[in-house]
Here is the input.
Amino acid sequence: MPKAAFSDKAVPKFPDAPAAILVTGDVEFFVEEAAARTREILSMGKEAEVLRFEDDAPVESVSDALLNRSLFSPQRIVELDISRLLGTEAPGRLLTKAVEAWEAGKRREAFKQARLLLSALDLPLGAPEETAETAARKVRRKDEAELLAEILKELPEEKGGGAAILRSALRALIERGENDGTVALMTAVSPPAGVDLVREIADRGLVLETTVGDDAEPALRRLAEARAKEREVVLEPAAVQRLLIRTDYRAAPFAMELEKLLEWAGKGGRIRATDIEANVEDESSEDVYGLFDAIGRRDAGDALARLERLLDGRDIRAGDRDFKKIEDIWPIQLLGMLAGEVRRMLLIRARLDEAGGGGGAGSSNFDASMSYQTFQARVLPRLMAPAAPFGRSPFESAQGGAHPFGLYRSAQRSSKFTTRQLARALARAADVDVALKNSGPPLEALTVYVGELIAGR
Here is the structure.
């Protein structure tokens, strides 16, 4: 079976399931959530024996559960996290995380990271001091060898060969293809690309990939509520909204910053919107259309703030689409987009004024509060009508007509300007272009341009 996006429909019933199913994703919460739902669907209609193994479970027990059928049920589901077999981070980072967890008194987390480290370096656990020195030397962190040795001294023993035996058992199960009464339901957070074991599962089993989808907000709010409840932290709604904005509604950065904030707040603590402002770097992207809308409202404060964000190096959007900017000439690109919008506004305003429908004196056919449906029925045909002597609408190009909704939004923006004001602004764009190409300060030149446009000068 190929890889598939996780959904209820993508999960087979137990009789049709392959022997190996792997649920992956970049956020542990959603991986665990999807794995739980996968287990429910697999065992639907029958009582399956479910064996769930933690990281410190004896390898022999896990291997035995994978390779042998249940004595008590015709269906057995073996759940385990195989992140440590696949590796998720650079070994140096794993060592640091193990040491940090140990110093914070989080023994279980320290053991987990230490096992991940040994697996990533393919090191057997021998004498703790020697193993720690070897690991620290390999990742060039010799100063952390002593603490790693302390962790390894306390590390619960994995009998029978550890990771190598577990990999062998999994491969034997995967080779079966269809299950013979046992299904391994595995999870892994952010497994590296190209790992052999993942490829083998995809070839003969099923890999389900979790995402929050295009509408990420509900899922991320659910994550925040669940994690805050677990940690007994009060997370104010305004703080969640601010965190969504600052992380640009992206699942992995949101989850990472949330964990940092919960750790910072501590049990019984509270996280407010002001705490987000103080502790989370603003990584949100900026929408070019947001600048256009602020200009259309003639809101100088919002427009200039958005202009500054567009020029501060962050990612750029155009509506729901990512915009590929060319860093060396981005200010000139932005001016081109802005001048293009001013031109559309001018053409719309002039066309509607000619027909007495510009929304000003004597106009009864268009105003900014008009619905999109009314605009399509009453105004759009006028804009798309051929203009003499060209025989086509000024909004047509070799690729076809402009998008009707785009014209609707431009018409709304144009309604607070006169034709003369927009014409002057379009003429001034050439001077700004020269200033930008002569290496003038981009923010200063564009700020003056946008300010004068909004002021109607």
